[in-house]
């Protein structure tokens, strides 16, 4: 891998000591880390052997992190399973997603992940935390996601969704799949892959299964679980165990600094305190929550309470910049306050997400400065008004989304330049994915 300079644009560094460089550039080394920032002319003199990527006057910024994704659900796009017209959250699961993941084979896993991860690259997501489920093919599924991520050059933390819903044998296989992949990821030295213990949600996880997961979990790893996404999760825990789902998870040792709790919509004050005390990361998925009609997390209050917060897509595409805009608008709409979330929401994506991800990858993400990961994107945006460090977030919220991304660099490698994917034949990848999806739909009886 060669050195590369990305320059000729407004550099939004997310580094408090040097937040904005007008008309500057970033030099990345062959070790996947940032070497220097500054005027392009100086960078070219200092690194004469580096290739040059022209930002064309756009915004040069750190690559984005998606903290909660489900790549496999891309194969549900454009279809409604026969006989399923979901009115409730459980209809979506039982008649839709669970029905589909039972039909998946390893070829489906690979091609759906390839399409989803291509979408990540095109939308400026350089690091993804993906929770996978394919109860038609449990064993060997995470290596297929790994293969797809490697094909695109994506940084990824992967896990399998453990659940009791398909019986004890498949539940045990899911736990083992997580363990096998965690061991494999730990052996890698490139810093591009990590593993976690994936779990579905409390209402499909018995105490016995939670105990099995935690007994098997390496001390250096964490859990990735849905928490209080819908009232069903909260009600089930209260009726079955006599305690909130958050309290139950704490008692079982699930919560902690390396645990991701996706959604967190239906939380009481005790839940919020527990999540803060354990430093568990709560990941808001605004678009998915709206699509499933499960409610809206009170993110502004969570931020004021000191929770560790981030943003995810929950399989609802990979446009993190678009998700930020929707989350911001939803916060205002839900509260009736036109200023709600003004400071908190951009902080989730641009500070919270990379800070949480850095806990796992051992390299500084989400900032452009020497020694940080050379995960860099360029957005095609020509501001109609003056832009600087103080108002850059307002410019992004008002005029930039995932479709604005033209160049993506991951660990110093240019994986997309001027919207041309460099790491694979994108058209061929999507053609293969469509062909496999058609076969999958037939097998899934949809």
Automatic annotation (TrEMBL):
Keywords: Hydrolase. This is Aminohydrolase SsnA. The keyword Hydrolase applies. It comes from Candidatus Scatomorpha pullistercoris. SUPFAM superfamilies: Composite domain of metallo-dependent hydrolases (SSF51338), Metallo-dependent hydrolases (SSF51556). One of its GO terms (molecular function) is hydrolase activity, acting on carbon-nitrogen (but not peptide) bonds. The keyword Hydrolase applies. It holds the Pfam family Amidohydro_1. Residues 59-415 form the Amidohydrolase-related domain.
